[in-house]
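In response to the reviewer comment on reproducibility (Comment 2.3), we provide here a single inverse folding case reported in full, input and output, so that an independent group could reproduce the run without further information from us. The structure tokens appear first.
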């Protein structure tokens, strides 16, 4: 879950030339050291701050880190996760997200001055836009904003049915998957959304499926992009969810749900199916992706790995959370609970360092498996997530404050921009990495 690719394309050197492995180098955002980026001019230095780089963040925004690359992403995930577990977000938090939308319906990663029109050269981002759609559609009451965003997403669909994070670029599995989730959340039927060449989002997504190509341990995997195609666990997790028409929120199938994990039937490097049966179905593609994820999780001790350039592979918490959601989406309850147990033991510090999108990813992973996010390996994820933003209007049905009177919630913390994001934020930087955030 992450707009990894979008972050990679927007990131300053030295990462701007790195492969857009999305959730790209599996921890794209994780690798972004925000101190390397210039802060928006609209930020005002805080008198007496310990660092000249310290800035005051906008009211209503979740998280304490520079939002230049992931503001809309982390806000959307935070609001969506809160709504999913029965928390009514503060009006100021929702208002901040709505005001980030451009007149054409698109969202950029962050607008420091939302009162001004989006510049023509502003980098519209399908990942941030699709994340905002999922959040605003779930919250309700923002039909016009959702419709405009969906209209923009449709207008930038690639001819093969896919999407890239930045319009005009070759599509990728992660961006296509998050847009499918947005279409479904907005009440659209993704299969009915066709490109100029009459290709659907599912047609586009399946082009990234490796199937039986390559080594046996990669069978069923998806690649991030067609160029330099290689099995990518995060892309596979995103695609295994998206190909089923699901978004960030996957309803729990129940503790006894256990659909078998079925790897593709491969023969001579091709899917060994009866030709009369037609092309691989969405369910078969999702099962194949799930089988690949299970194999990777089993090999690594129930977590996925990220490998940053020049660094040894490290556990990727965000992508592991994405894998849990993907397995739950396919009805693979037992397989999802094994990496979930690993997350319960190992994810708390990562989320604490990474911020609201990380907490949101874990909340959504717990929700998808029917687990209690308020008792997640000794951590109350809901309370922790709530603390990263303005005080909620209501928690678990208990009234906290009148949302109409909310003016920003808790005081905003001040931080140095030089802090780095936590590795592997799943949706955003991998970690759905599409991290973050």
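Designed residues, in position order:
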């Amino acid at each position: 879950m992450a707009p990894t690719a979008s972050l990679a394309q927007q990131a300053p050197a030295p990462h701007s030339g790195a492969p857009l492995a999305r959730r790209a180098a599996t921890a794209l955002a994780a690798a972004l050291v925000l101190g390397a980026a210039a802060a928006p001019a609209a930020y005002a230095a805080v008198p007496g701050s310990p660092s000249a780089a310290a800035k005051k963040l906008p009211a209503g925004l979740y998280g304490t880190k520079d939002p230049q690359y992931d503001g809309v992403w982390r806000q959307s995930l935070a609001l969506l996760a809160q709504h999913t577990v029965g928390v009514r977000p503060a009006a100021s938090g929702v208002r901040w997200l709505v005001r980030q939308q451009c007149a054409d319906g698109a969202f950029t990663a962050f607008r420091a001055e939302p009162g001004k029109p989006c510049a023509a050269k502003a980098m519209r981002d399908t990942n941030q836009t699709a994340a905002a759609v999922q959040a605003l559609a779930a919250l309700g009451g923002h039909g016009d904003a959702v419709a405009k965003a969906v209209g923009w997403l449709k207008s930038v669909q690639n001819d093969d049915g896919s999407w890239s994070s930045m319009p005009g670029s070759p599509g990728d599995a992660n961006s296509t998957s998050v847009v499918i989730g947005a279409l479904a959340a907005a009440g659209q039927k993704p299969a009915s959304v066709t490109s100029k060449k009459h290709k659907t989002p599912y047609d586009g997504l399946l082009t990234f499926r490796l199937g039986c190509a390559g080594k046996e341990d990669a069978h069923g995997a998806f690649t991030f992009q067609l160029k330099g195609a290689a099995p990518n666990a995060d892309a596979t997790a995103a695609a295994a969810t998206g190909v089923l028409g699901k978004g960030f929120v996957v309803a729990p199938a129940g503790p006894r749900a256990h659909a078998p994990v079925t790897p593709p039937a491969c023969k001579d490097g091709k899917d060994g199916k009866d030709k009369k049966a037609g092309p691989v179905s969405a369910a078969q593609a999702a099962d194949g992706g799930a089988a690949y994820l299970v194999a990777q999780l089993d090999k690594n001790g129930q977590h996925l790995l990220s490998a940053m350039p020049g660094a040894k592979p490290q556990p990727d918490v965000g992508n592991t959370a994405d894998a849990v959601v993907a397995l739950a989406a396919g009805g693979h309850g037992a397989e999802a609970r094994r990496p979930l147990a690993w997350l319960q033991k190992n994810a708390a510090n990562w989320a604490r360092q990474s911020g609201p999108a990380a907490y949101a990813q874990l909340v959504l992973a717990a929700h998808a498996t029917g687990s209690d996010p308020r008792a997640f390996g000794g951590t109350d994820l809901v309370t922790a997530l709530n603390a990263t933003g303005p005080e909620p209007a209501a928690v678990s049905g208990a009234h906290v404050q009148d949302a109409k009177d909310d003016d920003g919630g808790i005081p905003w913390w001040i931080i140095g921009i030089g802090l780095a994001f936590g590795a592997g934020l799943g949706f955003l930087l991998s970690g759905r990495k599409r991290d973050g955030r």
